[in-house]
Amino acid sequence: MSSSSIKVRFLIDKERKRVVFVEAGSAFVDVLFSFLTLPLGSIVRLLNKQSGLVSLDNLYESVVQLDAEHLQNDACKEMLLHPWSVAARQCGNLKIKYIYELYPVLFYICRENNCLIQSTIYYAYTSTVPCGSCGNLMDFEVDWPKKILDEGGIFVNDTVDFIMTDDLRVMQSSFAKGLSILKEMQIQDASILEERVIDFGTKEALDLLKRSLISKNVLTEFCFPDACVEASGDSSSSNKDEIVAGEAEPEAENEIILELFLNKRNNEVLCAEVGEDFINFLFSFLTFPLGSALGFLSVNISHLGGCIHNLYSSAKSMSSDCFKSEICRDMLLTPKLSTFYEYKKQILKLKEGLLKEFIVSGKITGKTFIEQNPKSPKGEKDNDGAFVTSSKRFMISDNLRVTPLSLISSMCSEIDIPISELVRKEVSMDKTKSVQLKIAAGEILGIMDMLFSMNFCTMKQ
Ligand SMILES: [Zn+2]
């Protein structure tokens, strides 16, 4: 652990047991910013299905439980549960190996000699894709060579010093900024301050990741886990109506229909019945990198429960000198999908990244590698990049548990009100209603259940 940990200096208000700010170099800031490059499904996986974002955890678990018969193929399940990050190789250079060690960067090729001697070799990121030449599973593991970066940090410039507030606002360090934080926190007397140095390793990095999603006092809670701090914002209630669409313009060629079942007394959505289009729309959020998901919400990300949006806003507003390059900044603000991950009917359009160059040593040197499309390894129709292909209908509970429709279990588990109070509404999500869908991207970060109520509210008008 000692070889891959970072010493971070905390300034503590020892009277009120809170963190004033943290002083850190580029290595620590790179680790924090790398959170933005993680696909949502990988966040749930790294946090052992306990991200604290109940809806997201439920969505992930729904994929775990989903029978293979509903999916295009086995690889699709793996793509949703273990989505590859386009920045994974850069992140292999992070000083704390929270991604690289817990989530090794591998690819898979065919182990058949006849295939290995060809000049072109197929590869995939999951071990469940058949070989394009012989049809056997490509399950021979090969380590991605670590991406060798130029000197000077991964995302941020290693000549810059940073400070970071309790709620993860990152800024270039200066005496004036330090003073203004003291003022903001109404600290008059410097004698209540003390320095604490903490070693950050993998465990601590994952702890911060989790807290950043659900808490507004991330560093304080990290330092004083037993202290009673100000409650984290309740993201699911107060300001629903203030949420408006962000800047990016979503596109939609297709409309998606869902049927909602509501309690007519309070308009609460109990469940929804949907087809494969909506299921793919929902599941594909697991492949969205966090930074892009936050980007879709752009102006109104502050309604989320945690303070990860401050990290995003910092990356957006910090001066160019703080970053290694604008490309590095873009990897945080608009991280792309991995190749072949796009679901073409997804209304929130996100581009796939291109990941071409790599060098392989050993007996497979000097070959051309072609990535196999895991969704259609034999060149068959890939159904608009769908993960789920099923003529079955699905039920979604308001906290995003997705199950194939079973009338009996729905009647028993979803309906806890008198049948006479149940009403049915059909909602169509098309281009004209794209505003609602933009909200959907944010809801997946913990309050996706609002997707339904927002739709209903709009419909009522
Ligand atoms: Zn083969």
- The average pLDDT is 80
Radius of gyration: 23 Å
Tell me the β content: 15-25%
In order across it, which strands form the biggest sheet?
A: 7-6-2-1-8
Q: What would you call the shape?
A: flat
Number of domains: 1
Q: Indicate the low-confidence ranges by residue numbers.
A: 229-252, 431-461
Largest sheet: 5 strands, antiparallel
Task: Work out the number of β strands.
Answer: 14
Beginning-to-end CA distance, first to last residue: 58 Å
Report the helical percentage.
25-40%
Bound molecules: zinc ion
Helix-strand category: alpha+beta
Count of alpha and pi helical runs: 16
Instruction: Give the SSE string.
Output: EEHHHHHEHEEEEHEHHEEHHHHEEEHEHH
